[in-house]
Specification:
The complex is a heterotrimer. By secondary structure, chain A is mainly alpha-helical. Chain A has 13 helices and no strands. Chain C has 2 domains: about 230 residues, 3-Layer(aba) Sandwich (Rossmann fold); about 240 residues, 3-Layer(aba) Sandwich (Rossmann fold), CATH 3.40.50.300. In chain C, β14 and β15 form a beta hairpin. The two termini of chain C are about 45 Å apart. The chains are: A mainly alpha, B mainly alpha, C alpha/beta.
Chain lengths: ~300, ~350, ~500
């Protein structure tokens, strides 16, 4: 059997495409967690981004408005979380759960009028180069701008955290909000910013799903990707580059599942669909066993409220 | 001038007042949302919160929905009180339903008094088995229970889906994704003619009584309280931390499993694809709204159950999307958490200086 | 240029306590000032106001006649006020250099140069590229000092700087501080240690219960006069009478090791010692050298090999704290608010944390509240806890009363051995004396004590034998009368 080398390229490209929303949401959440905030509302923020992007695209017809609108929606919804956890000092876990429940409800409510409407084609870049290089052509070219952004994001995030002053401040706040505050850093402001940024990235991840990946609105279309994104952050031990690896593994699982069904492998479809969730659990177990490493890489103040009494 | 100051001590009166405040604020915000959507707020709220329970049937439906919520929330309060974040009750409910449904199918077309207890027990065991996964992974592999229990929800729903579509589907069922009807001996008896409220409510009430007793009268309850405040203290006192984590997960899984039993052996009497409208997640809100107190949870489960009914009624009569229910649930939790601020802080009015 | 710092009528009130009551003080550069007071006297509040961490309710601060508005730590920095906190304000997982650059506006290269110059000038040597968590306490303090020096401060405030230092490090610090002072930096030195004030400072301001008691020149004072001003009464000196040494061995630790999975903890290596009945073994050391781990291993919070701990002829290394209590051991951890007691719980509930079999606090899994309450009342009266109400949440007890409650809870079972860790940390003199007297008393009743403490004076006062823990290893065990604080200092620094 001869396998077309470009076919392999296409499969890899499709794996990458399915990794995009995970990379975006995980990188956003990673920044949030690096500042010491655990936002379990990723799923909720993503689904809000998905419906906002799709709705704005349908209503305004502008893809740019839709993409930025989805990010703004993510920011707005995460503002609720930021206000509750930072200003009213609520428990991060409970607030994040509320955000997810609320987000799923609101998205379905808004989305009622958008079910069944076909999406729009999203422009891709470098379409013409696809056939120029075997194997690499389909991998490198012919993708949306969001795709390229997603694959640049882990490196940008890594550079931001390691090399910039602002990134240093984010890490410092996550390490010890008390020390940071005594050093004159406005902890609340930094954490607000990181939460809102996480919201924007989750919103973008959602918009990618509803506008580019499967251009339509389906209720609950994030299907647990927000939770997997959260797990990826743990998997990466808070290192953005490793998010890339993790997201590719999960993207691969999703794609392989389609191809196995196509080839006619006799495994119940439900088992294949369950695979990413089961693998997430296994991966978490394997990573968490090295408690020394987890302890060293987890932001020390993760999930703990900080209150400064003047 | 108004100044915010920290209270010397969290106020006990406000502890029980804030849930009421949260519900009130949710109604206000809900009215606002209805207004934005173009409905008359008061009329919409009436359809949402009053019409559904205005008659006998509605009230029975309220209890029907409140039963699983209460049962699961009671179980969750064991976990939450002792600092364990089990958020996968939905999965434990589903798995409990699968196991008990499987057992019920074994007794297909058989009758006997012994069948129902076995079916109920199977559900509890199913829930416990499923809850033991995050518990064991947490205690022995240091794995985050939030993510594991959550992932298992998706897995359980897929297992259920596989079973009702595949091996367990009704042979005479024209490929509908459902199993055969359970025999009458495997069903929880209905309490009143023509109403759907069933004996599952007694399971919930029993759980309430037992949990109250455990929380406030037993050594286990004391240990849970201590662990909830400080794991370091629990260790210093010599409590067996791992054993307790597993125990509270098992209790919580059993309760969720029993709720699953109620869903399939009650009025429906078969396994099908969607046995629970996310009761397992909503119960998290119920547990918090009820302040992890058994009596509080009873009230909270009734309040939250209305959001389910209200959403259905509002959809039928006003074409308000039924997801509004979830929106309300999310808002209740938001407002509850927000109003907790009053527990620790108070507003002080200060006369302007000079 | 001469620097003049003036604090004028500063008041800060917290619910239930006046931390600073109308305090006015004036400082001039060229001198080293001591701010002396007991724990809780208000000195930390005052310097936190100076460094912008706390905003006063009333009062003004002037630097060279300029009225300063210090609303945040950055304001203090902008006005050239530097502060080294008692609890370091460092970021453990960040590198030393990152810790230094974070509040500096300089470029990486120029800052590195500047740091090198400073380190050379004052003879500091610290690797800039390792995470702070790998540094010793003395090195961490130097990082804090460098952080201040980078900004060429006019004022440098040191809050209880020697509590984590060895004797040698302390004298090095004093040399540096004198050098800074000669260079024109105004030094304010906060402490409750009288000896240090006499050794280092030129002028001393004494605070008591939020109020400024006196300002005077050191040459007109001596240790006794300062002590009286600080405490407000004549100090009672407690002296332990030499106990009759028994040769009846109570606890023996053999080849005990502990390797932690937590990188923030210290591993214990080859611990061997024994304690006889009626003896007090003191374990000295600078905090963070394995004391907490040693305490946990002895209490059973960390389980070790069965044979590594022999207590009263039983091997108990694999038992948890509750099981060890059955053998008549008792434990008083360092952290009163997060471990030894739960502030949000009532006094009698906190008493129930020490559940031993004969207590009957819990019968057949049920709570026996009457029994617990009865017991609690006895503790409160026997151990002088200043309240009648056992339903009171323990957060309303002062540190001293809470510690009495904890010690009482542990001692009411008349254990053969009490293991305590920094039992008088943060307490006022009255409570410290009470605890010390209690510890002496139980020794006299032929009960034993293992006292892990970072307070050398306390150890010298109470111990019959002393050992020093350094990087998880114990020094040889010495008789207390052969030991001086200088000698302990050397061992605490890691020398043999």
């Amino acid at each position: 059997m001869i396998i077309d080398i470009n076919f392999i390229g296409l499969i890899i490209a499709s794996i990458m495409a399915s990794a995009v929303p995970l990379i975006l949401a995980s990188c956003g959440e990673l920044i949030t967690e690096r500042s010491g905030v655990l936002n379990l509302g990723v799923e909720g923020m993503m689904i809000i981004g998905a419906i906002s992007g799709f709705a704005l695209m349908t209503v305004t017809g502008s893809l740019i408005i839709a993409i930025f609108g989805a990010m703004l929606a993510g920011v707005l919804i995460s503002t609720i979380f930021a206000f509750l956890t930072q200003t009213l000092i609520t428990n991060h876990v409970a607030t994040g759960l509320a955000l997810t429940i609320f987000g799923i409800g609101i998205s379905a409510m808004i989305g009622k009028n958008f079910v069944g409407i076909p999406g729009k084609e999203f422009p891709v870049l470098f379409e013409g180069f696809k056939d120029t290089i075997p194997l690499l052509g389909p991998i490198l070219f012919g993708h949306s701008i969001v795709f390229y952004f997603a694959f640049a994001l882990p490196f940008i995030t890594s550079y931001f955290l390691k090399k910039t002053k602002t990134g240093l401040i984010v890490r410092a706040v996550g390490d010890s909000p008390e020390s940071a505050s005594n050093q004159g850093i406005n902890v609340r402001l930094v954490r607000y910013a990181c939460i809102l940024y996480g919201g924007a990235m989750s919103g973008l991840a959602g918009a990618y799903l509803s506008m580019i990946y499967t251009p339509q609105w389906i209720e609950n279309m994030t299907g647990g990707r927000g939770w997997i994104a959260l797990a990826l952050v743990v998997f990466s031990t808070w290192n953005p580059i490793k998010i890339l690896i993790g997201a590719m593994i999960f993207g691969g699982l999703t794609i392989i599942q389609f191809h196995m069904q196509a080839i006619g492998v006799r495994i119940p479809v439900q088992f294949l669909t369950a695979l990413p969730y089961i693998v997430t659990i296994i991966v978490l177990v394997v990573i968490s066993r090295d408690s020394r490493k987890i302890r060293l890489s987890t932001p020390s103040s993760l999930g703990k409220s900080f209150y400064k009494d003047n | 001038m108004i100044k915010i100051v920290k209270r010397d001590q969290p106020s006990r009166a406000i502890f029980f007042f804030t849930p009421v405040l949260a519900i009130f604020l949710t109604l206000v915000a809900g009215g606002l949302i209805f207004f934005i959507l173009g409905f008359k707020p008061f009329e919409a709220l009436k359809f949402f919160f009053i019409v559904p329970i205005a008659d006998k049937y509605g009230f029975s439906e309220l209890l029907l929905k409140a039963t699983p919520l209460c049962l699961i929330a009671i179980g969750l309060s064991f976990c939450f009180k002792s600092n364990n974040w089990n958020i996968g009750a939905e999965g434990q409910l589903t798995f409990g339903a699968i196991v008990s449904g499987g057992v019920a199918l074994l007794f297909y077309e058989q009758e006997g008094f012994y069948i129902l207890p076995i079916v109920i027990l199977a559900g509890a065991i199913g829930g416990m088995l499923y809850a033991s996964i995050p518990a064991i992974l947490k205690t022995y592999f240091n794995t985050n229970e939030i993510l594991v229990s959550l992932m298992l929800v998706y897995v359980s729903k897929l297992i259920l889906d596989y079973l009702v579509v595949g091996p367990w589907s009704n042979p005479e069922g024209f490929n509908f994704p459902e199993t055969r009807q359970f025999s009458d001996s495997a069903k929880l008896p209905l309490l009143f003619e023509g109403l759907r409220i069933h004996a599952g409510i007694f399971l919930a009430l029993t759980a309430v009584v037992i949990s109250w007793f455990v929380f406030y009268k037993t050594y286990l309850g004391f240990q849970m309280k201590v662990s909830g405040f400080s794991l370091k203290t629990a260790k210093y006192a010599g409590y067996k931390g791992k054993k307790m984590i597993i125990l509270v997960f098992l209790i919580s899984g059993a309760c969720a499993g029993l709720a699953g039993v109620g869903e399939i052996t009650g009025p429906i009497g078969q396994l099908h694809r969607e046995i629970s409208p996310d009761y397992g997640f909503t119960a998290i809100i119920v547990a918090f709204l009820g302040r992890l107190h058994p009596v509080g949870i009873i009230f909270a489960s009734l309040v939250v159950a209305i959001t389910y009914l209200g959403a259905e009624t509002a959809q039928i009569f006003m074409q308000i999307p039924k997801y509004t229910g979830q929106v309300f649930q999310g808002m209740i939790l938001f407002f509850l958490l927000a109003s907790d601020y009053l527990l620790f802080f108070k507003f002080k009015f200060i006369g302007s200086k000079k | 240029m001469n620097t003049n710092l003036k604090i004028s009528n500063v008041t800060k009130i917290y619910p239930g306590c006046v931390a600073n009551d109308n305090v006015s003080l004036e400082f001039n550069s060229g001198k080293i000032y001591a701010l002396l007071g007991e724990n809780g006297a208000g000195k930390s509040t005052l310097v936190k106001i100076l460094s912008g961490v706390i905003i006063p309710d009333e009062g003004e601060i002037y630097l060279n006649e300029n009225n300063l508005k210090l609303n945040s730590p950055s304001d203090a920095k902008k006005n050239d006020i530097g502060m080294v906190f008692q609890h370091f304000n460092l970021f453990e997982t960040l590198s030393v250099f990152e810790n230094l650059i974070i509040d500096s506006d300089e470029q990486r290269e120029s800052l590195r140069e500047k740091i090198d110059t400073i380190m050379k000038k004052y003879n500091f040597s610290i690797d800039l590229d390792i995470p702070v968590l790998n540094l010793s306490a003395g090195q961490k303090q130097k990082v804090e000092i460098i952080r201040c020096l980078i900004r060429s401060p006019k004022v440098l405030i040191m809050d209880e700087p020697t509590s984590v230092l060895t004797e040698q490090e302390t004298s090095e610090l004093f040399l540096s501080l004198k050098k800074f002072s000669e260079e024109g930096i105004l030094i304010i030195y906060i402490t409750h240690k009288l000896k240090e004030v006499m050794q280092l400072c030129d002028e001393v301001a004494v605070m008591r219960r939020g109020k400024l008691v006196s300002v005077s020149e050191i040459k007109n004072e001596n240790i006794e006069s300062l002590a009286n001003k600080m405490v407000g009464q004549n100090l009672k000196t407690i002296k332990k009478k030499k106990a009759k040494t028994s040769s009846d061995q109570l606890i023996k630790i053999t080849n005990l090791n502990f390797t932690s999975e937590d990188p923030f903890e210290t591993n214990l290596m080859d611990i061997n010692f024994s304690v006889n009945r009626g003896e007090c073994l003191g374990i000295a050391g600078i905090s963070g050298n394995g004391q907490s781990e040693l305490f946990q291993v002895l209490s059973g919070e960390i389980i070790s090999e069965k044979n590594s701990i022999e207590f009263n002829k039983n091997y108990i290394g694999d038992l948890n704290p509750q099981e060890r209590r059955e053998y008549l051991m008792a434990f008083s951890p360092e952290d009163r608010l997060e471990q030894a007691a739960i502030p949000q719980m009532k006094i009698f509930e906190n008493v129930a944390l020490n559940n031993f079999k004969s207590s009957n606090f819990f019968n057949n899994g049920l709570i026996n509240e009457n029994k617990i309450k009865e017991h609690s009342k006895k503790i409160i009266s026997d151990f002088n806890v200043n309240t009648e109400n056992i339903e009171l949440k323990s957060q309303f007890l002062s540190g001293g009363n809470l510690q009495k409650l904890i010690i009482g809870r542990e001692l009411i079972t008349s254990p053969d051995l009490l293991i305590c860790f920094n039992p008088t940390w943060g307490l006022d003199v009255g409570a410290i004396n009470y605890i010390h007297e209690t510890l002496i008393k139980i020794n006299q009743q032929n009960k034993s004590i293992i006292l892990i403490s970072t307070d050398t004076d306390e150890l010298l006062k109470l111990s019959d034998k002393i050992s020093v823990i350094h990087k998880g290893k114990l020094s040889k065990i010495m008789n207390a009368e052969e030991v001086t604080s200088e000698k302990l200092g050397i061992l605490m620094g890691g020398a043999n």
